[in-house]
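As noted in the main text, all predictions were made from sequence alone. Below is one such record, for P-loop containing nucleoside triphosphate hydrolase protein.
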Amino acid sequence: MGAAPVLYINGFPGTGKLTVARAIIGLLGEDQALLIDNHGLIDPVEARCGRSHPRYLIERRKERERTFRLYVYDKGTRFKTLVFTGNEYLFLERPDAARKAGRMFIPVNLFCDIEENVQRICSDDRAHSGTTKLLDPKILVDLRSRFEIFRFDIPEELCLNITSKEPEEVARAIVKWLTSWRASRIRSY
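Prediction:
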């Protein structure tokens, strides 16, 4: 059997990417999957040099490259499903890294209604997360009015409207889809 895939949980800020990703890890088990949250990559860099610092983007790239070396390319994690979260313009690095490592890249796009998204971004859990997560609903509304979630337009892409769904329900749907996808890949060999 080949290497485990790289799942990329994509969505606007406050959609629930990290919560769903944690639930996926809970279902798959920590011996079978590894979570790499985008704030685990962003926040250490921001602590060293703020977002307006001239080296910020360079340092962010270095942090992503280090993460790819440690997890995506490392033979010790080859059979673990890697679950990334994000909503960045840098998403194309992830499919390239997956391909380079001989892993399938599976984007999972999470969508929810704007009203639900605003409610989630204002949650106490998010406000007290200790991260640099977006907390301003006005910025979220502006982002959503100007941008769309990037679609990879590949057969492995999964898009879910999670407006009225609990994170565990969403995670079960993703794991069920992933299990079915893996079974179909094994049968095709």
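Strands lie at 6-10, 33-36, 81-86, 105-111, 158-161. The CA atoms of residues 18 and 30 lie 15 Å apart. These features were considered when defining construct boundaries for the mutagenesis experiments described in Section 2.9.
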